[in-house]
Amino acid sequence: MRAHQLMRNLGLGAYRTAWFLSHRTREAMGDDAPASKGGLGGEGKIAEIDEAYVGGAGKNRAHRKPAPKKAIVKLIERDGRAASFHVAKVTAKTIRPLIMTHVSRASALMTDESSLYTKLGREFASHQAVDHSRDKYSYYDKGTDRVASTNVSENFFSILKRGINGVYHSVSEAHMHRYLKEFDFRYNKRSKLGVENAERAARLLKGVEGKRLTYDQPAN
After folding, report:
1. How many CB atoms lie within 10 A of CB 11?
2. Which residue, 108, 148, 175, 216, has fewest beta-carbon neighbours within 10 Å?
3. Which is it for strands 46-54 and 108-112: parallel, antiparallel or unpaired?
4. Pair type for strands 138-141 and 46-54
5. Where residue 212 falls among pLDDT bands split at 50, 70, 90?
């Protein structure tokens, strides 16, 4: 929810209060790091890795310059959880630590055809890549008896982009990591994984414990 809408709904007197409250809420959503729970994927499971650039379209900002696109790396377990990371630049050097920290090496890795994943894929149980440059988005791999694709991660990116472009319109570099926490929380606490509204709210409140965010720390 946008801070302006939150301000109206709660009857707050200042936008700054609503903005701060929204960031406190997002901060509370970030206590579900895959690395602390054994990692995404695992033996017999599929982990998709993909990257995209997120930012509002120019047509949404008739009177101001569009914010630069932000590079996002998405790690997602099919039928499971997800983790999103903002990186300054998508390179093998920047994404490898994220993948090796948050994805189990016992996983079957699914990526696009980017050379970023060629060497890295050898460190996992298997690695299949789909060649998007040739309009190839999925194929059946007989050797692993699996359908290779990055469709799940691409679907997540479509939700993220609609949220950023259509709801928030502009997200600064300094705060992108908190917005990613929000979208990851929604995905990881969805009904399909057995988490309903009451439990979702309880987990959000639990996430507030031990966190301290003050007005002079918005970018930390």
Report:
1. 6
2. 216
3. parallel
4. unpaired
5. low
Q: Within 58-167, where are the H helices?
A: 92-102, 151-163
Burial 125-136 (b: 16+ CB within 10 A, else e): bbbbbbeeeeee
Q: Give φ, ψ of 106 to 5 degrees.
A: -80, -5
Mean pLDDT, to the nearest integer, of 159-175? 82
Q: Break the chain into its structural domains and give their ranges.
A: 1-30+190-220, 35-188
Decide: 117 and 111 in contact? Cβ < 8 Å.
Answer: yes
Phi (first) and psi of residue 93, to 5 degrees: -70, -35
Determine the pLDDT at residue 220. 46
Tens of pLDDT, residue by residue over 80-125, are 999 999 999 999 999 999 999 999 999 999 999 999 999 999 999 9
CA angle 200, 204, 80 (to 5 degrees): 55
CA-CA distance, 217 to 213, in Å (whole number)? 6
Provide the residue type at 154 as one letter.
E
pLDDT single digits (tens) 145-162? 888 999 999 999 999 988
**Mean pLDDT for the stretch of residues 129-142:** 86
CA distance 178 to 171: 10
| Residue 24 token pair | 């406190």
Which residues fall within 8 angstroms of residue 125, CB to CB, at 6 or more apart? 43, 105, 106, 107, 108, 109
